[in-house]
Amino acid sequence: MKKTIIALSLVALGMGVAQAQEVVVKIGSSAPLTGAQAHLGKDTENGVRLAVEDANAKGVTIAGKKVKFEVVGEDDQADPKQGTAVAQRLVDAGVKAVIGHMNSGTTIPASRIYNQAGIVMISPSATNPTLTQQGFENIFRVMAHDGKQGPAAAKFAVSKLGKKVAVIDDRSAYGQGLADEFEKAVKAAGGTVTTREFTTDKATDFMTILTKVKSQNPDVIFFGGMDPQGGPMVKQVKQLGIGAKFLMGDGGCTPELIKLAGDAIKEGTAYCTQPGVPLDSMPDAKFKDRFKKRFNAEVQAYSPYSYDATSTVIEAMKTAGSVEPAKYLPALKKVAHKGVTGTIKFDEKGDLKDGAITVYEFKAGKWEPMK
């Protein structure tokens, strides 16, 4: 009887030691979870959560200790001031990495706080080139930046849609940054920018701007901004009888823009560009099905990239044998992680190497990649 009690005690002791060996590692996530862009923000956060759940299900051991990853999600409301407040909260929470932010306007100021704290940040979607031109060694992104997307969109516009282009942006770091790159590339490709107008990322009435655009008779209207503005703008383009083709960057390459535009969006009239390859052509073509099963929602835009950002940083931790940013950072810089969207490798600035750009057209009620 005594031997049995001793044996049971030893087993219990062993279980207690095993439990004590488990380490909780916090990974921060920041995106707009409320407001007009909440559908995109939740999509981004859910990509992080799915990657963490997959890692925990497989079981990860680092430095001889079992690791349980935990997501600390924050709502930055797509607002730069809120973004910096969120960044400080994540630093104070002791996160070992941050996946975010979603918008360039929140990501750039937040990156300075993460840099000062020595925390790795990987954005799944902030495409303004300035982000990785600040000289911060711990800041990365897993999506091609606007220095590539702008010229790709401009080349398509001038060669396929028409040489006279009107450019509008929402004055956000993302929208204006992409429009600037697009405008430069249009001129370099032999096109003409008929007018350059701007609005805000909160506006919904564009009639005054579009009336001026109509007087210029452009072949193409390019809007640098997000779908909450892009959808209503498409409607108002139709209301004014403007015959120009409508083109956006990744901020408009969403099911939500189609929903917001309603009957105003027609085949042969609307296009968008998106960094990366089409969802169905990604190395993990089953991602969208797994995502839908888990969250009962379709992929909007950025969840494959937030998933890859998360799994890449976890891979670097495993390679380095440490969850501390200063120790796994060298491994992250050299990583070649085969992700959902492709192989994740970073250049010396922290930008994604070999990032593709895909052009989409509105066809059969959805965005279809063009051949």
UniProtKB/TrEMBL annotation:
Q: What keywords is this UniProt entry annotated with?
A: Signal
Domain Leucine-binding protein as annotated: residue spans: 25-364
Signal peptide as annotated in the record: 1-20
Query: Would the keyword Membrane be found if you checked this record's keyword annotation?
Result: no
Q: Which Pfam families match?
A: Peripla_BP_6 (PF13458)
Which Gene3D superfamilies has this protein been placed in? 3.40.50.2300
The chain's coiled-coil residues are none
Which PANTHER family did the record assign?
AMINO ACID BINDING PROTEIN, LEU/ILE/VAL-BINDING ABC TRANSPORTER SUBUNIT
Instruction: Report the family membership.
Output: Belongs to the leucine-binding protein family.
Protein's name according to its UniProt entry = Branched-chain amino acid ABC transporter substrate-binding protein
Q: What organism is this sequence from?
A: Uliginosibacterium silvisoli
